Amino acid sequence: MDPVAQVMGVVNVTPDSFSDGGRYLDRDAAVAHGVELVGQGAAILDVGGESTRPGAEPVAQEEELRRVVPVLRGLAEAVPDATLSVDTSKAEVARQAVAAGAVVVNDVSALRAEPGLADVVAQAGAGCCLMHMLGEPRTMQDDPRYDDVVSEVKAFLEQRLEYAVGRGIDEQRIWLDPGIGFGKTARHNVELLARLDELVALGRPVMVGTSRKTFLGRLAGGRDTGERLPGTIATNVMALQRGAAIFRVHDVAAVVDALAVAGATVAAMRRG
Ligand code: HH2
Predict the structure, then answer these.
(1) Is the whole-model pTM more than 0.70?
(2) CA–CA separation, 25 vs 14, rounded Å?
(3) Alpha carbon distance 8, 92 (integer Å)
(4) Do 153 and 132 form a contact (C-beta atoms < 8 A)?
(5) What are the pLDDT digits (tens) for 186-197?
(6) Mean pLDDT of 152-162
(7) Which of 85, 89, 108, 210 is the best mutation target for the ligand 1 pocket, counting ligand atoms within 8 Å of the beta carbon and taking the most?
(8) Rounded CA gap, 196 and 260, in Å?
(9) Ligand 1 — pocket residues by CB below 6 A?
(10) Burial of residue 272 (number of CB atoms within 10 Å: 0-12, 13-18, 19+)
(11) CA–CA distance, 195 with 67 (Å, rounded to integer)
(12) What is the mean pLDDT of the chain?
């Protein structure tokens, strides 16, 4: 695999995530799942306690804390070499997650939901992932529109990067993410993947999260969440070729293999 390509395994401690809701709600099941994903080659684990699927209702802070903090503690002990990330937009959840072992805060709101989150990341010296989303999860798939999706996402990420650095977050620890499926049609998602190099040009590692998402099912003629691994692999390989660095997936073993082969091929292409 290209040395900069890293796979992030998803650990959803939720009852309602779109593809694996309810499977790892129990602390021990979630920790065991994370350990399994690291065994399959995930360098990073992303632990989330709130679904962001279209139409999802927000989760109360106390409940989100109850879900993610014990799992992060368990993973910090069980897989000390893995990079732990917390998927949250709440400052207090991020604060306690960092104390429990998370070193990356993956915020789908790109520091817009709670201004205090930037301070938590800056003071902890943590990393963060800034993701583009049009609207909010409850309504984001209601007819999203752009003039040019790639330049609008790029301008947004550039502005959020500047904001994060201005709030004291170490630029070297910031990742950018186009937010595949977050207020985007299948056509928008495909356009973003096709022109991902334009986001890579911002100079920070780009993360992509296409795993099992609805547009993959649609493009393949109608596939349920459990049948979207081929589409997940295809999109991650395309993203690798266009310079993405972090690949957020549920099916770690398959994607690690695919990226190893694709990475060797891309390296050969670059050598000429
Ligand atoms: N996608 C999901 C959640 N968090 N974070 C980033 N940075 N990028 C993504 O593309 C992304 C994300 C949605 O996937 P999942 O966690 O499986 O579903 P749910 O939000 O329903 O828990």
Answers:
(1) yes
(2) 5
(3) 23
(4) yes
(5) 999 999 999 999
(6) 98
(7) 108
(8) 20
(9) 10, 12, 14, 17-19, 48, 51-53, 87, 106, 108, 129, 131, 177, 179-180, 207, 209, 248
(10) exposed
(11) 36
(12) 95
